[in-house]
Amino acid sequence: MKKQRLVSLPSLKDAAKRNPSESINYLITKIAPSAFLLSWGQGKSFCIRTYGCQANVRDSETIRSYLLAIGMHEQDSFDNADFILFNTCAVRENAENHLYGELGQAKDAYNKNKDVIIGICGCVMQEEVPVRHVLKHFPFISLIFGTNNISSFYSLLEESITKNELIVDVKSNSYQVVEEDQIPSYSRGSKVSAFVNIMYGCDKFCTYCIVPYTRGKERSRKEEDIINEILCLKEQGYKQVTLLGQNVDAYGKDFNNSYAFAQLLEKVAKTGIERIRFVTPYPSDFKLEVFDVMQKYPNIMPSLHLPVQSGSNTVLRRMNRRYNREEYLDLVKEIRKRVPDIFITTDIIVGFPNESDQDFEDTISLVKEVKYDAAFTFIYSPRPGTPASKMKNDLKDEVVHERFDRLKVLVDNLTEARAKSFENQIVEVLFEDTSKKNNSMISGYDRHGKLVHVKGDASLIGQIKKVKITESRTYSLIGEIVDE
Ligand code: 5AD
Ligand code: SF4
């Protein structure tokens, strides 16, 4: 068994603290590998498994670029990999359980090659109970770090290799925004479309949600750093950026500018990058100026993911969402007035503690009223440490599942009907990848974010083409390129 060195362990209690007098510290740092890592990495391979949201995808891209910079190459499987990393998601219990299943498989890899370095990072590692569980049940792990110290990755990796110890270094809170002086390369999963962080963390503390504890205080990147990154991506040929944050429309609140998101969006539009998207806004932080900017610049895509979570005011209050049903519906009306062809999607939680029949009916009626173009529906999953997990809950599982199924049918019908409305229409598609199922097909997204497949080859990747839709399925469209 490896010797365990606990540099710092997570604490949800500490993570819940926000010190208003602590200002954000912007750190420009050079992240460069040591001579040791440059030599260790040559010719070695790594495998990264990423769970959860785009924030994790972006973090994995950053770590991937660190590993590529020391001469390693990426592979899809654990077999013979020299470094395996799990970037974990804590938002619902099933993602956490999936991790433990995968760690079992990683154990086989370790049994075949005792030199393999296995690391775990991401949101689950920001919680003390899972970290203790890993220490007890998966002692072959070499490295545990969190969401707030990715910039220390090289030194952590080097220590775990040279000392042959299990190192745990998880910072519970951060008031830092780290900008890299010289990024090894803007390594992204795609050569066409890139995620760009505009802010980190969340201060909303919705009662069901673990994210404010695992990703720390809401803090914005400086506008110039974001714009420079986007200009760099554009120069490299990227066609689309997606601005990322837990509540993008709270961007700049930490430097006392509630209008900063609209201003940032306009500056991003002016870079001339062909497509701009953003996730995720929080309904009550929206300034209507954002929609004016969306309307003014055709390179901002007409789609909006606007999580509602519930249609019942009682439940919204108990969730600590800071808007009510009426305000949400008014916002949707305003958006549709300004950007008429906008695609609106949402997140909905079913079975929040003691959600009544009437509460659920309120959600159904809100979904019917908004007529969402698509929606992600989730069964409430108690997250230890959150206020909702301590709420009394007499709801029976079967009632929750019945509600969930009913909502899913409604949402799928709306999604299908909207998909059908695309038939025989001409849409603009940015092609991103060959189809996973059929390599004579190529896939991309229309301006609304709808997935479109056409016959074609990889030479189309990165191009925007007009496509006539010939067939619709619930979650995707099939079409053919029309000559211009
Ligand atoms: N249980 C179920 N769904 C959750 N989400 C966040 N926390 C939970 C939870 N404890 C959902 C919300 C959020 C989305 C990313 O995940 O709908 O918008
Ligand atoms: Fe979680 Fe609410 Fe923050 Fe979204 S806004 S990350 S649901 S706490």
| General form | globular
Distance between the termini: 65 Å
Spatially, the strands of the biggest sheet line up as: 1-8-7-6-5-3-4
Strand content: 15-25%
Helical stretch count?
A: 14
Radius of gyration: 23 Å
Q: Which cofactors or ions or other ligands sit in this model?
A: 5'-deoxyadenosine, iron/sulfur cluster
The biggest sheet, with number of strands, parallel, antiparallel or mixed sense and barrel status, is: 7 strands, parallel
Spans of at least 5 consecutive residues whose pLDDT stays below 50 are none
Count every beta strand, where a strand is a DSSP E run of 2 or more residues.
Answer: 22
Structural class: alpha/beta
Mean pLDDT: 94
Give the fraction of residues assigned to helices.
25-40%
